[in-house]
Design brief:
With 640 residues, this protein is an alpha/beta fold. It has two domains: 38-445, TIM Barrel (Alpha-Beta Barrel), CATH 3.20.20; 463-615, 3-Layer(aba) Sandwich (Rossmann fold), CATH 3.40.50. 34% of the residues lie in helices and 11% in strands. It is built from 22 helices and 18 strands. The protein has helices at 2-17, 46-56, 59-65, 87-95, 110-125, 162-168, 171-187, 217-232, 274-282, 285-289, 321-331, 350-353, 377-387, 399-406, 412-428, 439-445, 449-461, 488-493, 541-550, 568-571, 585-593, 610-615; strands at 67-70, 101-103, 134-137, 192-193, 244-250, 269-271, 294-297, 301-303, 306-307, 310-311, 337-338, 392-393, 464-468, 480-484, 497-499, 507-513, 555-560, 576-580. The strands form four sheets. The chain has an eight-stranded parallel β-sheet. The chain has a six-stranded mixed β-sheet with strand order 13-18-17-16-14-15. Strands 6-8 form a two-stranded parallel ribbon. Strand 1, helix 4 and strand 2 form a beta-alpha-beta unit. The longest helix is centred in the N-terminal third of the chain and has 17 residues, at 171-187. The chain is globular. Residues 614-640 are annotated as: Disordered. GO terms for molecular function: beta-glucosidase activity.
């Protein structure tokens, strides 16, 4: 009888509206009323669909749209670990908290991830209005991974880090990557990339350096724009098969004194001038011109420059009306979604400000309310909304938003503005019409042979050759090679004979990385980030290995640079010097053997000493004393 009732209602609606209004095939009765409502009709304009749905929503449902939560896993409300989502906890977030946007941190095989994301959409479809979930992710396609900022694994194609693309400086390659990553994301049911990072990398010690496009604002702008084009399928906004990008972090994030990062209390400030600030802003131009669907403000308090002739208010980017409503929406004309970085409305308690060995900072005490530390939660939400935030990242309770409306701090009309932007994006991506994915197809698309082959080419081409004394490279396969930091199986596969003593070798290959320190071991992010020194020192194990090898044979040194390394202590021992930005051992060995050419050029300069680093300003690109290698350095074997 239930099925007959639905059929009867649909039949009455058909004859009432006339044959011309016959429901389209496959339409979804999202609000379960047996009628084809305008927001359910894919033939209706997006504007009308948005307004129809908005009129049906309660204030609490609209406030829920403004939260960008986390898909929990069993035992982890922030989604780390585990192989499935916590269905009961997710149901509570969707039904009780009315949340429909989530970050996923699940790392499982593609078919399994697709199945888990389909299950989330099934929960969403059962809701009162059937609003589909938007599922986002931090970057998944690169070598560098920092808990809470990026991840690897799950069989996605593996490409260089963003600095590798900057070394090539080829927008065509950048767009190709974006398109491949787009297809992989959509195959598993991911709709939003919390990237690219268009921050201008001006402080060499900065812990987030590796995810940038380097120190030149024009290069950053060009490649960030190409990234957006690849993910969103063009420059006219995201398509129904595109992945919405959220370019970050607006603006000035890379100018952090000492390189200390804004995730931490001790890194909550950035120092710039009017002149340098303009360069950091310019780095975002390409992504904005390509109509990035979203922008994420920086955590940090920007100190020094003025906006519209007025000093910048000393609050974090997510609370700053001058930066968001003034500079971004006003001067730059941005009309998309502004998504706050994670946890800006949460408290920063004692073990967030000054943790110690007895009381280290845990996920429960993560908060970045910089400049608003003394305000209550309602005031923080109101301040962010007034500044221009549409959606708050890492938050799962809309009560403070409703409280702000009740107290007259935020108007219902302002809530509607954000709700419109959020709903519009869901409609533009086709999620209301079909949010489900083919789980078996996901296994065929993600990390497929053709995609990884293209990624492998870029891993090789993005390497930078800085020295090649006496034509050390290429090294003919068949030679005896001593290795440090390299998989012997990869060297054998490349045709070399691996020996266990450099005295028995004809050549040596040592892989190392930019040195770092753990200066804040009790802070959640500080304990995971690379801070402090950039220079190699005689007591470093890798330096000792280099010295051991170079005493016997020509030694090739390949330095993985997540930050600009100071090479002074090892350069004299290198017969050939390669810089990598995310490359497998096989990729490095192919360059060593001449099977592939290193085509990259440094996307930043390399200082000569830590004294030179400390002498420069954190907000200016490649300033300070004459570098050991300038931005753009690189040798092209065989010409170029």
């Amino acid at each position: 009888m239930v099925g007959f009732g639905k059929l009867l209602v649909a039949t009455v609606a058909f004859f009432t509206l006339g044959a011309a209004a016959a429901p389209p095939s496959g339409w979804r009765d999202l609000n379960h009323n047996g009628r084809l409502d305008p927001y359910e009709d894919k033939r209706v304009s997006v504007d009308r669909r948005v307004e129809d749905l908005l009129a049906r929503m309660t204030l609490a449902e609209k406030a829920g749209l403004m939260l960008h939560g986390t898909l929990p896993t069993p035992g982890s409300p922030i989604g780390f670990g585990g192989v499935v989502y916590d269905q009961a906890a997710t149901t509570r977030l969707m039904r009780d908290r009315r949340i429909s946007s989530f970050i996923t941190r699940l790392v499982v095989p593609p078919a399994q991830l697709a199945a888990q994301n389909n299950a989330i959409q099934k929960l969403a479809e059962a809701g009162r209005l059937g609003i589909p979930a938007t599922i986002s992710t931090d970057p998944r396609h690169h070598f560098q991974a920092t808990l809470g900022a990026s991840t690897t694994g799950g069989d996605f194609s593996l490409w260089p880090d963003m600095l590798g693309f900057a070394a090539l400086n080829d927008p065509v390659v950048m767009r190709r990557f974006g398109d491949i990553a787009r297809a992989e994301y959509r195959a598993v049911g991911i709709h939003m990339a919390l990237s690219p990072q268009a921050d201008l990398a001006t402080e060499p010690r900065w812990a987030r350096f590796s995810a940038t496009f380097g120190s030149d604002p024009d290069t950053v702008s060009r490649l960030a724009g190409a990234y957006v084009e690849g993910f969103q399928q063009g420059t006219k906004g995201v398509t129904a098969q595109g992945v919405a990008t959220v370019v970050k972090h607006w603006v000035g994030y890379g100018a952090q004194p000492g390189g200390f990062d804004g995730h931490n209390f001790y890194g909550r400030h950035a120092a710039l001038t009017d002149a340098s600030f303009a360069h950091h802003v310019r780095a975002f131009d390409g992504a904005l011109a390509a109509r990035s669907a979203g922008v994420m403000p920086t955590y940090v308090i920007v100190q020094g420059p003025k906006v519209a002739g007025q000093p910048i208010e000393p609050v974090g980017g997510g609370f700053n009306k001058q930066l968001l409503s003034g500079l971004l929406r006003g001067d730059k004309g941005f009309t998309g979604l502004i998504v706050s970085d994670w946890s800006i409305t949460r408290d920063c308690p004692k073990d967030c400000v000054a943790p110690d060995a007895a009381n280290p900072q845990s996920p429960a005490s993560i908060g970045m309310p910089w400049g608003m530390e003394q305000a209550d939660t309602t005031t923080r939400f109101a301040k962010g909304i007034e500044a221009g935030i549409d959606q708050f990242g890492g938050t799962d309770d809309a009560a403070p938003i409703l409280d702000a409306v009740a107290k007259g701090l935020v108007s219902v009309q302002r809530i509607d503005e954000s709700a419109r932007r959020i709903l519009r994006l869901k409609f533009e991506q086709g999620l209301f019409d079909n949010p489900y994915v083919d789980e078996q197809a996901a296994a065929q698309i993600v990390g497929n042979v053709q995609a990884q082959r293209q990624a492998d080419v870029v891993q090789r081409a993005s390497q930078v050759l800085l020295r090649n004394d006496r034509a050390t490279l290429p090294v003919a396969p068949g030679q005896r090679i001593w290795l440090h930091g390299v998989d012997p199986a990869a060297a054998s596969a490349a045709g070399f004979v691996v020996v266990d003593d450099p005295a028995k070798a004809q050549v040596a290959l040592v892989r190392t990385a930019t040195p770092f320190e753990t200066l804040h071991p009790h802070h959640f992010f500080g304990s995971r980030q690379h801070e402090g020194r950039l220079d190699f020192r005689a007591d470093d194990k890798d330096v000792q290995a280099i010295a051991r090898a170079s005493a016997h044979v020509p030694t090739i040194i390949a330095v993985e640079m997540d930050r600009p390394a100071i090479l002074t202590a090892i350069e004299s021992m290198a017969s050939a010097l390669i810089v990598t930005f995310g490359a497998s051992d096989a990729a490095v060995l192919d360059v060593v053997a001449g099977h592939a050419k290193a085509q990259g050029r440094l996307p930043f300069s390399l200082p000569r000493s830590m004294a030179d680093v400390e002498a420069q300003r954190p907000d200016l690109s490649d300033d300070g004393p004459t570098p050991a290698y300038p931005r753009g350095a690189g040798i092209m074997l065989g010409g170029g």
